[in-house]
Design a protein that fits this description.
By secondary structure, this protein is an alpha/beta fold. The chain is built from eight helices and five strands, in the order E-H-E-H-E-H-H-E-H-E-H-H-H. The N terminus is likely disordered.
């Protein structure tokens, strides 16, 4: 992929999962300097942060982990509490129990403060409206609204960039492949709600979504 490098620096909100890892490599192909920012909200699968650390170490990416344990106190959730199992099916109404109230809103707001302190305006996040799993804070309208709010809040020209917004999971795999990051994303990330790296447990909603996309992508690749 051609290196555009129209801007010099970016902050990537980086969880160590499939989507944010793809975004990290997307950013590395475009910016001279990329800083990865992870949040410790006492997620059940702390291994997620280990994946994030390992990937950054391996590829020489500057990495910060911010303490967001307050989020766990505010919003007990199936991703943060071991006594709440993840629903295997999405509910007919409302958000799934893996949705963490305020997560993207708070993470992006903290990322914006972090970025401004370093004179950086571009913030990259792996949210997707195509595969948003019922999470309202993955939708384009939310990102646009938050961008406006952050610009007004800090009188600064933030740009929240969402390379995956209109991609489904198969297209996200294709993008990782195009960026030369397919193997890293497949083997070194953690998306599974049961905390199993790579291809995961196979039956939680995150694994099902990831596998369906992977199968579709591999079918097309091998066609
Ligand atoms: Zn799983």
């Amino acid at each position: 992929m051609q290196k555009l490098k129209n801007k010099t620096s970016a902050v990537v909100v980086f969880s160590g999962g499939q989507d944010s890892t793809t975004c990290l490599f997307w950013a590395l192909s475009r910016y001279e300097k990329v800083i990865a920012l992870s949040f410790d909200y006492q997620q059940k699968h702390i291994k997620e942060l280990e994946c994030a650390k390992n990937i950054c170490r391996k590829y020489g990416v500057e990495h910060y982990i911010m303490d967001m344990s307050l989020l766990n106190q505010l919003a007990p959730n199936s991703l943060t509490r071991s006594d709440i199992p993840v629903d295997e099916q999405a509910p007919e109404e409302g958000t799934p129990n893996s949705f963490v109230d305020g997560r993207n809103h708070l993470f992006l707001s903290y990322a914006a403060v972090f970025a401004k302190q370093r004179g950086i305006s571009d913030i990259i996040t792996g949210v997707s409206q195509s595969d948003f799993s019922g999470y309202p804070d993955c939708r384009d309208i939310f990102i646009k609204s938050l961008t406006t709010t952050l610009c007004l809040a800090m009188d600064y020209q933030f740009d929240i960039i969402t390379p995956l917004m209109w991609l489904d999971k198969a297209e996200t795999w294709a993008l990782a492949h195009e960026l030369g990051a397919f193997d890293v994303v497949r083997n070194e990330t953690l998306t599974c709600y049961n905390g199993i790296m790579g291809d995961g447990c196979g039956h939680c909603p995150a694994c099902k979504l990831r596998k369906k996309g992977l199968d579709t992508f591999l079918e097309k690749l091998n066609a």
